[in-house]
Amino acid sequence: AQAGQALDWQVIGLFIAIGASGSLAGQRLAGRLPQQTLRRAFALLLVLMGLYILWRSVPSLLAAST
Predict the structure, then answer these.
(1) Are the CB atoms for 1 and 7 separated by under 8 Å?
(2) What span, in angstroms and rounded, lies between the C-alpha atoms of 16 and 3?
(3) Are 29 and 38 within 8 A, CB to CB?
(4) What confidence tens digit (pLDDT) does each residue in 6-20 have?
(5) In whole angstroms, what is the distance from residue 19 CA to residue 14 CA?
(6) CB atoms within 10 A of CB 38
(7) Rounded distance, CA 62 to CA 26, Å?
(8) What is the mean pLDDT of residues 31-54?
């Protein structure tokens, strides 16, 4: 970390726990669901994440341009 910045270990731990849990759940689902269903679910997840990032970013971008 740079001077004046600290790492938030609780947030880091939360991301690790969620990532590991998601990985294990995904591994179990991958064997049970058809590949087409998995691809569509992943595509939907990407679209939703993109929309969320856009929703969170647009107000600050608009405020910076004025």
Answers:
(1) yes
(2) 25
(3) yes
(4) 889 999 999 999 999
(5) 8
(6) 14
(7) 38
(8) 93
34: left (phi over 0), alpha (psi -120 to 50) or beta: beta
pLDDT for 59: 84
Give the H/E segment covering residue 60. helix 35-65
Report how far residue 4's alpha carbon sits from residue 38's, in angstroms, rounded to the nearest whole number.
43
DSSP string, 2-34: -TT----HHHHHHHHHHHHHHHHHHHHHHTTS-
Question: What pLDDT does residue 57 have?
Answer: 92
User: Is residue 33 pLDDT above 70, yes or no?
Assistant: yes
Give the pLDDT band (50/70/90) at residue 3: low
